[in-house]
Amino acid sequence: MADRELSFPTAIGTSNATQIRLLGQDLTADLMGKVGFGELAFWLVTQRRPSPGETRVFETVLVALADHGFTPTAIAARLTYLSAPDSLQGALAAGLLGGGSRFLGVTEDCGRFLADTLAEAGPGTPTTDEGWDELARGAIQKARAANRFVPGLGHPVHKVEDPRTPVLIGIAREEGLEGPHLKLFQAIGRVHPSILGRTLPLNGAGVAGAALADLGLPIDLLRGFALLARAAGLLGHLAEERRQPLGMDIYTTVDRNARYVPPTPD
């Protein structure tokens, strides 16, 4: 029997000796110099070119999540670079691997929480703030009964308001892209104090997740967009580490202040 011709279909990109094709376009003739990186990233994932409004909201999210100072992700990247300056990719990867449920990964966790709440509510969405508040109240009470955190609430630095949150909501509203996830997220901000007994800010990672979900991006990939944004910030930290090293100071400060204590059994 004759060998069957192998075929590996993809709608992303292919190339031959003279041309590179990406998303059905000629890379050099149609995309280079004509499409921004954020627009291309959206296009690659959704297989459709975003509208100018969608691009603006999407790139606002990327800017909002690019850096937040000396977070564990940035410290991990700098210390890995200190240990292995010959492996820039290792330092960058070390920082990205730290994007989880406490830092950065909240983008996906919040988007999923909001999407699950909307799915459980069934078809149709509230038409008034009161309706959104009722939906939010039920979601918070359910999370509290299950002893789970409501993702997107609280921030270790911004105790009253995360400055990114109103800006991102405002831009989504300007572009007509304030959808059900953002509306539910804002309702959570309004009603949670009466349930939790304290007032917490809606954080930037959470509002980013809500905005991305309203753009119709896959919930399972939301953390990936946060990592895409943070990669730029980490590269900035590594560039600064080359110019103005801090990794050795971070390491020696911890090492010189380490204090031995006898082991205690669990």
**Whole-number radius of gyration?**
22 Å
Binned strand content: under 5%
Number of domains: 2
- CATH class of the largest domain equals Mainly Alpha
In round numbers, the mean pLDDT is 94
Relevant CATH superfamily of the largest domain: Cytochrome P450-Terp, domain 2
Strand order of the largest sheet: 1-2-3
Number of helices: 12
Helix content: 55-70%
**Number of beta-strand segments:** 3
First-to-last CA distance: 64 Å
- Globally, the shape reads globular
Name the poorly predicted regions: none
Give a brief outline of the structure.
By secondary structure, this protein is mostly helical.
Describe the structure.
The model has no long low-confidence stretch (mean pLDDT 94). The protein folds into 2 domains: 12-49, no CATH class; 52-247, Cytochrome P450-Terp, domain 2 (Cytochrome p450-Terp, domain 2, Orthogonal Bundle), CATH 1.10.230.10. With 266 residues, the chain is mainly alpha-helical. Helix 4 (72-83) runs antiparallel to helix 5, helix 4 (72-83) packs across helix 11 (222-243) and helix 7 packs across helix 9 (180-196). It is built from 12 helices and 3 strands, in the order βββαααααααααααα. The protein starts with 12 loop residues before the first strand and ends in a 10-residue tail after the last helix. The protein has a 3-stranded antiparallel sheet. The protein has helices spanning 27-31, 37-46, 52-65, 72-83, 88-97, 106-121, 129-145, 164-174, 180-196, 204-214, 222-243, 247-256, and strands at residues 13-15, 20-22, 25-26.
